[in-house]
TrEMBL record:
Matches recorded under Pfam families: ABC_tran (PF00005)
Source species taxonomy: Bacteria, Bacillati, Actinomycetota, Actinomycetes, Micromonosporales
Stored InterPro entries: AAA+_ATPase, ABC_transporter-like_ATP-bd, ABC_transporter-like_CS, P-loop_NTPase
Membership in a protein family: Belongs to the ABC transporter superfamily.
Protein name listed in UniProt: ATP-binding cassette domain-containing protein
Species: Actinoplanes sandaracinus
Amino acid sequence: MTAVLEISGLQKTYRSRKGARKALDGFDMVVEAGQVHGFLGPNGSGKTTTLRTLLGLIKPNGGRMTILGREVPQHLPEVAGLVGAIVESPQFFGNFTARETLSLLADAGGVDQRRVDAVLEVVGLRERAAERVKTYSLGMKQRLAVASALLKEPKFLILDEPANGLDPGGIREMRTLMRTLSDSGMTVLLSSHILAEIQLICDSVTIIAAGRRVAAGSVAEVLAEHRSTKVKVRLEPGVDMFGAAQALRAAGAEVTLEQDHFIVGNASRPAQITRLLAGHQIFVSELTPVTVDLESVFLQLTGTAPVEGANRQVDDVAATAGNGWGQ
């Protein structure tokens, strides 16, 4: 495959009276042609800084970036007409209608006016195109932003939280649109916090934390590399779950009690559970691996899983390395 986007060793440091803060610390990313690529990271991880740097809105302190084979920001004017983007919250003139807004943007970009109705149809705003933007909901404004990014039929589309404010039906429509665009040959870079949607729609992902890449590859590869060692354990009716949990904890297991079962979090060798409990005359009725999903992998890699009794701050990224029980 040909890479539409390549980022290598990207650096960006913000300086203030409080000192220097590294927003990007040698960040790398590759997006292959024709893919829907998910760009994931917690708040403050460097996602938006990366996108703004890529589009020439922020000057990096180091590193290399290419779009469609051309190094940017030096050659950004040469590829700008092939890139559509929405970054952060879209802003429009409230007194203009959606059609007027897109018509002005088409004129400014030298785009055929016939594209206006085409993109209004694609994003589902055809019937509301004559209404002023100030009457639009957040979700409708997001649709208008996507329409504006599609006006020039870009080869590379960058979308930052395009599902923000959409209802469930709108989210599904956006998912279908992303796949349709990809099938037509367009490459889509999608930044989102809706991880279940990313898992459904994306061919590949990059996960960033504290300005560095912590995972990259196809969704299947990333999930496989971080296979869960958790297992769900259910006992025979009437058996003391608390006593079973205590026996496992004494052997080094991480046990979380639920209403009618418990989870062993570091069970790299599940057979140990049945063997140990049988030694206490406690018998298992169910032993099921807990399937890993993109959300759990994300929380693990970025160190942002909720901790009981603690309030995680935006820039907190915890160490996540650990050893499996019984190894």
